[in-house]
Amino acid sequence: MTKLVECIPNFSEGRRPEVLDAIAAAVRGTAGVTLLDMESDRDHNRSVLTFIGEPEAVKQAALAAAAKAVELIDMEKHQGEHPRLGAVDVVPFVPVSEMTMAEAVELSRAVGKELWERLRLPVYFYEEAAASPERKNLPDVRKGEYEGRKRDISDPKWMPDVGEPRMHPTAGAAIVGARFPLVAFNVNLDTDRLELAKAIARKVREKDGGLPAVRALGFEIKERNIVQVSMNLVNYHKTGIHQAFEAVRAEAEKAGVRVLGSEVVGLVPLDALVQCADFFLKLENFKPAQILETRLRG
Amino acid sequence: MTKLVECIPNFSEGRRPEVLDAIAAAVRGTAGVTLLDMESDRDHNRSVLTFIGEPEAVKQAALAAAAKAVELIDMEKHQGEHPRLGAVDVVPFVPVSEMTMAEAVELSRAVGKELWERLRLPVYFYEEAAASPERKNLPDVRKGEYEGRKRDISDPKWMPDVGEPRMHPTAGAAIVGARFPLVAFNVNLDTDRLELAKAIARKVREKDGGLPAVRALGFEIKERNIVQVSMNLVNYHKTGIHQAFEAVRAEAEKAGVRVLGSEVVGLVPLDALVQCADFFLKLENFKPAQILETRLRG
């Protein structure tokens, strides 16, 4: 298998189709990269692209898209509901296969360096690429937004990680980093007792002492007259789909409630599914390279 | 996802590296095809190639490899332990993803037609592509081998499915068909009682009234002092990995024996693993297209 990394950059433009087309074209025009998705929000005036490929190709696509955004977006005129620091607001890299987090961090650092050198965007590193704990969380790094950071960027607290302490005159600053792929996974329970779903969510989520890297909420699904424990697994290497499933099932069973089914929302890394088969079948020595389809690359 | 088909042709040459290199080069030189594996046996004087790709590309690769084999292999001089009917002895096509068995059968028929038209190889269709039940099993079709078929090919019983009833003067005849991917799956039991493994194998295999499309045998694994139920799932759409696993586990539990683990030997279609995750997690509405890696093709 080949090293694969995903990049999900957020740009501060969600209204002008010609700008979005130009940014998407920069990604599509990079050999070895596949644009998987593009979503824009008019109210947020913001768009999110998702693309994937080998690290060097993904780096080139990210830089090409960023160059277009710097050229075509003017933060002096930008308005939108969503907080933002610049035209190339956030650029996270997610290791997908055959790639360690350390390599994704290294990639994000290299991209950050070039954003400054080529485009004169000062760069902050966040999440796994953060240089200090205060810069790990995105909302903390983005505090004060574009307008505030223009004033305080020379403050030692807001010194960028790459580049000089001055905002790009029209594109502001960029936040670059690496994070694990997120798996959105819901478990449906055969009851209409919302308080049970909420109690199980509290029991299994990290915040309240549950499973590591799990966020969870309890919801009603009114049209089916059932409830759901809705989870985000922010690092499936720490807590996998099968572990989340088993934890919810165990808690439901204590309350005498049956699991009806589960659902994976959106995309899921192959690895996370193989982990499940692995766990339930007690597989010995299984390698993803044994999956026929993975043999088509590399 | 793209339509993908695997081709596993068997050629009657396992000794001369220059011939094998030429056949492999014909496959490698076909755009859109990936050669996954090549194995030769000197005693059998026979080689098996495995390659994969979209149907049209796989067809071209199979025909290019067959042309090389017809050019370089002389059945008049061929000796080997393994039964064979010709230089291009057997050419099975296996639907891997987004492809029905009917489509694989159609592909095998098209290849058979061209083997006659381009190379003057008379062709027999077998397995899912067989035109009559007597020609379904490979050993039945190959009866008499190259030497015998030269004498009896004009007998109505041995009339080829494509082409005239005369063997190619140096390459004999070819057997072409379509079959399901085979999954080799073993379940290890926490006991040294070989007779239990054998009894469970009998219980679960199709031949003795067990699960459809399952072949099974019981073995000892001496170095671990345990026994194993070793299975071939010849159509995982009929009996999947999880069903085979659950059946063996249930039988073992009746005898008070625990399942230690299981193993997938060699390659496995992604679909077969997704089926397992699906089953154990009771997934609702999951589609293989949700797997990140599958989004890279098509």
Polypeptide structure, described:
The structure is a homodimer of 298-residue chains. Chain A has 298 residues and is of the alpha+beta class. The first copy, chain A, folds into two domains: 4-178, Formiminotransferase-cyclodeaminase, Chain B, domain 1 (2-Layer Sandwich), CATH 3.30.990.10; 183-293, Alpha-Beta Plaits (2-Layer Sandwich), CATH 3.30.70. Helix content of chain A is 33%, strand content 24%. The first copy, chain A, contains eight helices and eleven strands. Chain A has helices at 17-28, 55-72, 101-119, 138-141, 145-152, 194-204, 241-254, 270-281; strands at 4-7, 10-11, 33-41, 46-53, 88-97, 123-127, 174-178, 183-189, 214-221, 226-233, 259-265. In chain A, strands 1, 2, 3, 4, 5, 6 and 7 form a seven-stranded mixed β-sheet that branches. In chain A, strands 9-10-8-11 form a four-stranded antiparallel β-sheet. In chain A, helix 2 (55-72) packs parallel to helix 3 and helix 6 (194-204) crosses helix 7. The first copy, chain A, starts with a strand and ends in a 17-residue tail after the last helix. The relative contact order of chain A is 0.12. The mean pLDDT of chain A is 93. At the A-B interface, helix 7, strand 11 and helix 8 of A face helix 7, strand 11 and helix 8 of B.
Under the CATH scheme, which class of the largest domain in chain A? Alpha Beta
CATH homologous superfamily assignment of the largest domain in chain A: Formiminotransferase, N-terminal subdomain
- The class by helix and strand makeup of chain A works out as alpha+beta
Low-confidence stretches of chain A: none
Note the run of SSEs of chain A as H and E.
EEHEEHEHEHHEEHEEHEH
Shape of chain A: globular
Query: What's the β-strand tally of chain A?
Result: 11
N- and C-termini, Cα separation of chain A: 5 Å
CATH architectural label of the largest domain in chain A: 2-Layer Sandwich
Oligomerization category of the chains in this entry: homodimer
The major β-sheet of chain A equals: 7 strands, mixed
